[in-house]
Amino acid sequence: MRDYSLIGPDAERAVAAGLAAADWYHSDIPRKEMKALMAREDGPAIRDTLILYGAMVLFAGLGIWLWPSWWSAPFWLAYGVLYGSASDSRWHECGHGTAFRTAWMNNAVYHIASFMIVRNPVTWRWSHARHHTDTIIVGRDPEIAVMRPPAALRLLSNFFGLADAWAGWNRMILNASGRQDPEEATFIPESERQKVVTVARVWVVIYAATIGLAVWTGSILPLMVIGLPRLYGAWHHVMTGLLQHGALADNVIDHRLNSRTVYMNPVSRFIYWNMNYHIEHHMFPMVPYHRLPDLHERIKDDLPAPTRSIWAGYREMLPVLMRQLRGQDLFLKRALPATARPYREELHMAAGQPAE
Amino acid sequence: MTDWIDACATDEIDEEDVIRFDHAGRTYAIYHSPDGAFYCTDGLCTHEQVHLAEGLVMDHVIECPKHNGQFDYRTGEAKRAPVCVNLATYPTRVEGGRVQIKVS
Ligand code: FES
Hints:
The complex is a heterodimer. By secondary structure, chain A is an all-alpha fold.
């Protein structure tokens, strides 16, 4: 039985086994090419941000205008996905600081996205750093979405944001009262803790004002704009997010074994900001989202074949998750092409049994 | 007294780039800034022990390849989380087309 707590026995085991902060596999790319791939620019992210925020204003405006008619529903659904799902990828890319070249632009979008996705921007910067150091290492990675066996109800409820957003709001109240969760304390340095509290207090004020307005007007409309879209628009980021590592290996130090690259339609790629190239992102987190397709072309011969669609991803992932639910401790191991450098099996003994 | 140590030729580092230099069991990063000057810092990030020479130089900032933490490589100042601890810096000079560093 795995213990996913960061302060439990698996955390100690991972450190003892040399899996914490280990030396991970990287595909070979000459420095000159890598530099070109890592280069930063503002243009693509400014364009995408204008489209995103413009579309949000438009959809919310139409939703408000048609409210309370059912004709407003499609506009809320569209707005909700941008608020409750596109915010996940903006949080992610701007947290890495790779989306824009200009630091304040990354920070501005990061803070707005963090609010919408209900992730404290200070806490989650640190948790995500740990996710990159110890990707899917049990007891070390605080961002393992699909555990083994999978917490099926929790996963399903997250399609409507229920477990995650609820946890985020609870954490906000805890932090706003000046306290901190003990697990968070394992990855947030002391010097950053006051910032966690300050952000949480600002958020509480925003939510209080929104709820106050809803009570005052006797309508849930203000909450349709702020807060609730984190629930009714969450499904897309959960749908794409579960594919990142779901049913793949844990306790390995090769992203080709624990991450999944999936080809997706252009709308999903816009919402997800190209994080469907997930092996590439983990191997080279310095490469901005808009260069990931180029990076993919460059190293795909060294990676397992990409999954052809979201649908194909679920078809390969669900049967393995079902077997894990029935108590079998196995994972999906994708074959490498003949052109790839082989997996170093001796480093991956802790991964357990591949599914046939 | 500390001597100057010969590290590399000036044309071994592109402008706005960095290379790794190992000496006496330690590792350093040597930078060529966009305005043509050379700088030297410790080679490993202060967050986790990752070689900065695989990172990205932008103006006077080095971004770490692991978690995108940033330092000003002229002063070693930590500029962006998750790095909080400054990086040690060392004097450099150019002699006869060679970059030299002074490490204690
Ligand atoms: S190792 Fe350099 S930022 Fe984390």
